[in-house]
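Q: What does the assembled structure look like for these inputs?
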Amino acid sequence: MSQPLLEVHDLHVEFNGRQGCVRAVRGLTYTINEGESMALVGESGSGKSVSALALLSLLPRKSAKITAGSVKFRGEELVGASEKRMRELRGGSIAMIFQDPLSSLNPILTISDQIVEQIQAHEQAEGKQAKERAIELLDLVGIPGARERAKQYPHQLSGGMRQRAMIAMALSAGPDLLLADEPTTALDVTIQAQILELLARLQRDLGMSILLITHDLGVAAGFTEHLTVMYAGKAVEQGYTSELLSAPNHPYTLGLLRSIPRLDRPRTNALIPIAGTPPDMSKGSAGCPFQPRCEYAQTKCATEAPPFEAISTNRYIACWNPQHEAIERTGATK
Amino acid sequence: MSEKEPVLVIKDLSVRFAVGSGLVRRAKGYVQAVNSVSFTIAKGETLGLVGESGSGKTTVGRAIVRVNDPHEGSIVLDGHELVGLSPSQMRPLRRKVQMVFQDPYSSLDPRQTVRQILTEPLRTHKLPLVNSQGEDRISELLSLVGLDPAFASRYPHQFSGGQRQRVGIARALAVEPDLIVCDEPISALDVSIQAQVVNLLESLKQRLGIAYLFIAHDLAVVRHISDRVAVMYLGGIVEIASSEELYENPRHPYTLALLSAVPVPDSAVEKTRRRTILKGDIPSPTNMPSGCAFHTRCPLREKLGNPEICSSVRPELISYPTSKDEHLIACHFPDEKLINHFLQEKDGSR
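A:
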């Protein structure tokens, strides 16, 4: 069960454009074991999506480059792997679903045609057989009246149904790892609950590993066992989701948790925001990237980047001055 | 709250949009985006308006600033009826109500400096560019929203999302309105920036006594900022109560389901909490369900063995008799015991 499935080590990704060089990912390390789920949490521009696209070599080839690091899937190095091999893996052993199902589905093909296309890309299957598989998959992801729905076009489905269709497509080759990039961000909260429940059921029943990319700590809390918090292209804190959210050590994680109003806590008078704004990723930083916004910053923080190291069992952190202030538990309200 | 003087009184507001009409074609039908909505906002009060996409919450906000014209009903702002006014009659009243938009990128003119953006509403309403102390109003406005007055000569692209939203708020404040309609003012912002803007809105309310209609889908933020909260579903209000009452004591099955669907950043709570997952999608407003708009997805109706009244009679928004605060619910079965029973059932099934 706990064989490592995906090992990402010190990943660096750069974009080169007219505006100069943007170092979007600046050192990201994590491991996902077979059957486990991990959330990659961060704000826009933190490099979480770029790092996931990099795993599958889906970045624009002209402008983006993995400049350092390694990505191993079942021990096989994916950085520098041939396009042919990546093609086999993409949608095969590693599948991906995206935030906006409408723009990731082909508007002029029926749902069935798109799933059939996906099935036939990875295995020899006759048209009729593949069509039946497509309907089975739509049924599996909880689309009512799958046989009829399969004949429809993406615009005829609601947002939640489209995301289910996307998930059906992703499952078509029986992936071992599902990369889910903000899969519920475009959806309403009641539909989000449906999709998260579906993903949890599929993970359990099919034994998949899931990498969930999200900006919502609540979604991560309910769905994943492990959590990596990213800031400015780097992993800043990593550990078990439950422990990390109840006792964060990194000032950024602590700041995030303090700044959001929570339905499971009594109403507070004022939120405690994180001062300042996220850094400009086209510029480098000598020290810790969070230092300009950090209330616990020391002199060292401005000049020396903290290493990403274990500070206790199952907790990794990049900080010179880790905090040990537990997030108070004032008992759950409704 | 009800004794306080109202700044806004909305009664039986309906807004509909024509479907399939063109320049010469007649409308084939109508979408009832807002269906007989009534509420009031007191001076200096924040009313949160929540609901899923398609619930009509934005349309209500836009009807108040008269971007969408109401089909029926009345909107009384500071004692003036807005419905039926011509644009020129409306102009002086626009000073009293301003709007802050969701997207701080598209709601500011990229070719205007911040000074020009903030001067425009002052010019339109023939307001002085200096305050009573003879200071520059633009500088005053920028300091008010926590921006450096030296930024006045900058263009919107030189600001971050959070700073742009501050400019949008300063623009709304320029004409000293009594009410600001905030339509998802923080949902386009990064998580770490959202709290800054929420705190700004709260401090402005305290200092200037402005009332807000705070439209949002984030239920936790709405609880934090609102004095009272109205929940909308398919164009109608299903429940309205004080923020504490609504979140501690939700009565409408839709409100219950909505609250139970909000994830919280605590794994222990997430794994043990009772969750009502609604089946299916929000129906299309072009094809509105008969009776109670929620009956097609209502878990309570299912528990009760699908009573006929739910699909035939539209429930009125009526005051719930036993609650201490004002608490209105539009449900045929607003019985506390029933809801409790329904909650226990869920407990057992978990």
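Confidence is low (pLDDT under 50) at residues 346-350 of chain B.
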